[in-house]
Structure formats: structure tokens, C-alpha cells
Amino acid sequence: MSTNHYTGPLLTGIRELRSSWGWFMFLGIVLLLLGTVCILGNVAATFVTVVTLGWFLLISGVIGLMHAFRVQGWEGFFIQLLGALLRGFTGYLLIRYPASGAATLTLILASFFIIGGLFRAIGAQALRFPHWGWASLSGVISVALGVMLLVQLPVSSLWFIGFAIGLDMFLEGVALIRFGSALHHIPEVAPYKAA
Q1: Where are the domains of the chain?
Q2: CA 60 to chain CA centroid, nearest Å
Q3: Which terminus of the chain is more solvent-facing, meaning fewer CB atoms within 10 Å of its CB: N or C?
Q4: Low-confidence ranges of the chain (pLDDT < 70)
Q5: What residues contact 18, with CB distance under 8 A and at least 6 apart?
Q6: Which residues lie below 8 Å from residue 97, measured CB to CB, with a gap of 6+?
Q7: Which long-range contacts (CB under 8 A, 24 or more apart) does 127-133 make?
Q8: pLDDT digits (tens, 9 = 90+) for 49-70
Q9: Which residues contact 157 (CB under 8 A, 6 or more apart)?
Q10: Neighbours of 8 (CB within 10 A)
């Protein structure tokens, strides 16, 4: 990657990023390792994710309740109260019944994959924009993944969320390592001087 054709603020931005290449590499390695752990321990990662989400919802529900009672004279009091109760109750259920929570979240994700994939595949074939085949293939794969998750429920709910989070972290780690490496290999250039 050459910086010879970059000038002004763009060159300054690249120079600043180049000096941080090690941080990109470090973060990439950490994400790569965490992703690998999540993929190998996908069942544990699924339960940790569901329980963590439950705690976030429960805490936000408690804060929402405190807020609702502080502004109880406001016309939106009941909406605030109901929203806080819903978040808190959902959080409690996820913490108390993580396996059921994982099954519910997997069912929602499977539905999302199927519906989103159908829209993407049909839309790509109908519009036929440049390289529409890739978008269509992506949609078909998404539908297949959603159907697979539905067919394998409740077993798929035990491993899928942890696996998906691990895979996302792994791929993000690889991308950051590649980016940090590319930054490190940019040659030093003389500072830009305005004409």
C-alpha cells in the first residue's frame, strides 16, 4: 500500500493510523483468541451471553422503574412504567431460565435469517443489479441457516448463539490483524507541506 498519491489530511490520517498498527494487531489477537474460546466452548458462551443480556435488561428495568417513579406526574408515566417492568421481567426470565431464553433467541434469529434471506434473494433476482448473484446466494444461505436452526431446535439453541458470537469475534480479529499488518508495511513518507 503506497502513500505517494495521498496528500493533506488523508496523509496525516494514514500517518496517525500507521503509528497505532500495534494496537490493531493486539486487539485483533485478543478477539481472535476470545472468538476461538467461544467457538470451542459454544454452549458455555451461549449461556454466558443469555445471562449477561438478562442482567443488562434487569438492571435497565430497575433504573427505568426508578425513573418512572421520579416523573410520575408526567403523562407518559404508565408507558415508562410498563417499559421498565417489561425489561426487568424479561431480564429476570433470561437469568432464571437461560436455556429457554437461548431457545427463544435462536427462534427469533432463525426467523430473521429466513425472512431476511428470502427478501434478499428475491429482491436481488427481481432487481438484477450488478453482481446480483452474490446477494441472491447470500439470501439462499441465510434461508438455509434459518431452516437448519428451526429444524434442530431446541438443540441448536444450546450452541448457536455462542458459536455465532465466537465466529464474529474471530473474523473481526483476523480483519484487525490484517489491517494492522497492512498499516505496519506502509512506507514512511515525508510530511505534507501546503503549497
Answers
A1: 15-184
A2: 20
A3: C
A4: 1-15, 187-195
A5: 183, 184, 186
A6: none
A7: none
A8: 999 999 999 999 999 999 888 8
A9: 46, 99, 102, 103, 105, 106, 107
A10: 9
